[in-house]
Predict the structure.
Amino acid sequence: MKKILSLPALLICATVFAQTISPSELSKIQSSFVKDGSTAAIQNILVNNKSIKALALNHSAEPVDHFFKYTTSVKGITDQMSSGRCWMFTSMNQLRPIAMKRYNVNSFDFSHNFSYFWDMFEKANLFLEDIIATADRSFDDREVVTYFKSPVSDGGVWNLFWNIGEKYGVVPAEIMPETEHSNNTSQMLSILNERLRAGGYELREMCAAGKSIAAVRDQKVEILKDVYRVLALCLGEPPAEFTWRYKDKDGKVQTVKTTPAEFYKSVIPANYNPDTYVMIMNDPTRPYYKVYEIENYRNSVEGINWYYLNLPNDVIKVAALKSIKADEPMYASCDVGKQSNTASGAGILDPGTYDYESLMGVKLAMDKKARILTRQSGSSHAMLIVACDTDDNDVPVKWQFENSWGAASGDHGYLTFTDRWFDEYLFRIVINRKYLDSKSINALSGEHVMLPCWDYMF
């Protein structure tokens, strides 16, 4: 018979008073560290070597190769440099082969700088609008704290690229090349956030003083002028129209005179939108086959929020393999820092890559749900899934990322992750809904469960 705990028993931990470490407890803890020969040797190694990761590299792990049965059309490695624009690079990497086919060229890349300019500008406006909308709340309100903690950042997810592309278009890389501040974003971001925090404070003061909403928004425009100035000084001004000259595969020089919006239409498929492509997520902390939406996670006032359909991993893998077989790589995001050897010449992600428990002699194991809830793990990087290797029964054994850290990282810019790593550290995939099963497609029409802007999946 199942034992049912009473409410007082369930709440006992919540009612226990905090207690200091007693001398007897400290003695027990200290005596547990027995400095035998092996412990002394490990201590000597660790105090003289700062790289715990290198020391924990598991040389007994099963070898993982970089050969794949199914691959998609990929067009070379890009480099986001010292920026958080992985989501933008990944979205564009998925579309580069389409642009190359459309213009009959051997190589092509979009201007990340152009899209980055408008992403930051729109994020600044959204922040100021959020501050106006919450001006009647106290500074320690959780939503207000979230906004002021990071007014703008260069991080994001797939829907942000779509929002900006739909509104401002895209341009070739040559039209608005990278600058030192698009490649190294931290200092510019620091200045922007300082200006926006000051501006946000000013707008709240105006609201508290009873100024009209028209006056408040007039001041918002003045703040945005400063934002535009900083962006233009550091990134250059984005063109309203441009002339692009290029040499095609036949050696002919071609000239295109157009606008960013028209160029976007010329290279982006008509079905490239949230009606066709959906984000699916493996989040074991919440029920599957439900759609979740992060409140206010977008980069423009009129843009769409980040939302996802939560699915079991086995369902996600079936759909992902179908997409790979159909030559459609997928935007994906993961916890790339966990159990990953991304060093040049390696490029392996597997749960057995590092053995920290044996090195330290401590227990570290948690399942995916526990890691998420305790903030030990979460999505930190976006890459493109471009290949899958399967066994004799066509069951996946490993997958491949096309990364945006340059060709010197990993296996010539690519990372191979095992199916076991997929289970533990892959979170989101953007996929054409036609590869989903009927149960998943039906779940997409369900009501969105709105999650707060400070949610742990943010």
